[in-house]
From TrEMBL:
Protein family according to the UniProt entry: Belongs to the Rab GDI family.
UniProt feature coiled coil, ranges: none
UniProt source species: Linum tenue
Origin: domain of life: Eukaryota
Gene Ontology, cellular component aspect: cytoplasm
UniProt xrefs under InterPro entries: FAD/NAD-bd_sf, GDP_dissociation_inhibitor, RabGDI
UniProt keyword Zinc, yes or no: no
Keywords linked to the UniProt accession: GTPase activation
Pfam families tied to this protein: GDI
GO molecular function, a single term: Rab GDP-dissociation inhibitor activity
Protein name listed in UniProt: Guanosine nucleotide diphosphate dissociation inhibitor
One GO BP: protein transport
Length: 446
């Protein structure tokens, strides 16, 4: 390998593949390597039920009642996309949409007082929601109207509130919202993962609520989310194609992939099978540079195969249910993700559900029980914990850009934020995502 590359990307997880595509489009010379012989890394889809069985049950063969193995695409890091969110803008910006087909997700729900309710996202939905009493509904409706009308650049819409200074608590008190309402707004609409947001400036929460409402309005559907047909495993491959179109080089099944440094600690290349490819920068997931990351947590996860939709979700074939921490007496939220044959990820009549949360114990079966109890009968269920890592190096000193592990959330907002931050650190510029979303219809084939 005599050539020198601007960037070598290690690992074919979704974050790494998005960056590989973006950097190739920018004209950088990119080499993409992976020790595995498949795309996706930790965010891969297990295309055959035998793969899932092998991972969790060893050598046993799956029962014939589960249907055809090749009809399964089981995502290991399942996440929905906000229809008006940043990932969709990246897809349109890069024209990766031509490689993918999407479909809207049927429902967005929240767990409250032992029951599952549809998430009210507009002033009219707030009036109908059983989550609130009649007086609280009126107060919530006023707040939703304020959020819908809020324009950061138009002080007339601010009603005298400086959201860059006022905390969420202060704004909620102004509108007389009770703790219950604040809870589902913060976790099921603004998609905060814990309660730290309550003491932070309200501008972020209002922007998140607006994104939820705008995403919901795009398709007039039951949720603000979309999801690719055949699962998320399609996304890394689509960005790999994009990178290749712009001159990126891919090498799978490359053992070891050892990052090499000079005397000053700066990256100079990557060695595999006795050959070293030179480069100026390295992008990778935490597993390639374990000495430059620290463990920051652990995700507990259950994967269930079922023959029915999740009860109390209006027979939705695809759905997200958020269980806020306060409802469970926990420090972090729990997420329930369900998809099915309607998105071509399971055989006809089969549903795949995931329950995930930031682990607070070493016992996922017990910890995930509140979410599992919402599933009803399951055909098969698998449990696991996996560690989360984040980088501790200084990229300006060693030219290593390491992604953070995937969190427990079942939506993509935190994932894409990490990617765009890395893109800015590598290129010194922000990605222009001011695309016209009205020109694209994600529920069809973009």
């Amino acid at each position: 390998m005599d050539e020198e590359y601007d960037v070598i990307v290690l690992g074919t997880g979704l974050k790494e593949c998005i960056l590989s595509g973006l950097l190739s489009v920018d004209g950088l010379k990119v080499l993409h390597m992976d020790r595995n012989d498949y795309y996706g890394g930790e965010s891969a889809s297990l295309n055959l039920i035998q793969q899932l069985w092998k991972r969790f049950r060893g050598a046993d063969a799956p029962p014939a009642s589960l249907g055809s193995s090749r009809d399964y695409n089981v995502d290991m890091i399942p996440k929905f996309m906000m229809a008006n969110g940043v990932l969709v803008r990246v897809l349109i910006h890069t024209d990766v949409t031509k490689y993918l087909s999407f479909k809207a997700v049927d429902g967005g729900f929240v767990y409250n007082k032992q029951k599952v309710h549809k998430v009210p996202a507009t002033d009219m939905e707030a009036l109908k929601s059983p989550l609130m009493g009649i007086f609280e509904k009126r107060r919530a409706r006023k707040f939703f109207i304020y959020v819908q009308d809020y324009n950061e650049s138009d002080p007339k819409t601010h009603e005298g509130l400086d959201l860059t200074r006022l905390a969420v608590w202060d704004v909620a008190r102004k509108y007389g919202l009770d703790d219950n309402t604040i809870d589902f707004i913060g976790h099921a609409l603004a998609l905060h993962r814990d309660d730290r947001y309550l003491n932070e400036p309200a501008i972020d929460t209002v922007k998140r609520m607006k994104l939820y409402a705008e995403s919901l309005a795009r398709f007039q559907g039951g949720s603000p989310y979309i999801y690719p047909l055949y699962g998320l495993g399609e996304l890394p491959q689509a960005f790999a194609r994009l990178s290749a179109v712009y001159g990126g080089t891919y090498m799978l099944n490359k053992p070891e992939c050892k990052v090499e440094f000079d005397g000053e600690g700066k990256v100079v290349g990557v060695t595999s099978e006795g050959e070293t490819a030179k480069c100026k920068k390295v992008v990778c997931d935490p597993s390639y540079l374990p000495g430059k990351v620290r463990k920051v947590g652990k995700v507990a996860r259950a994967i269930a195969i079922m023959s029915h939709p999740i009860p109390n979700t209006n027979d939705s074939h695809s759905v997200q249910v958020i269980l806020p921490q306060k409802q469970l007496g926990r420090k972090s939220d729990m997420y329930l993700f369900c998809c099915s044959y309607s998105h071509n990820v399971a055989p006809k009549g089969k549903f795949i559900a995931f329950v995930s949360t930031e682990a607070e114990t070493d016992n996922p079966q017990v910890e995930l029980k509140p979410g599992i109890d919402l599933l009803g009968p399951v055909d098969e269920i698998f449990f696991e914990n996996y560690d989360r890592y984040e980088p501790v190096n200084e990229p300006s000193l060693d030219n290593c850009f390491i992604s953070a592990s995937y969190d427990a959330t079942t939506h993509f907002e935190s994932t894409v934020t990490d990617v765009l931050n890395m893109y800015t650190m590598i290129t010194g510029k922000n990605l222009d995502l001011s695309v016209d979303l009205s020109a694209a219809s994600a529920a069809e084939e973009y």
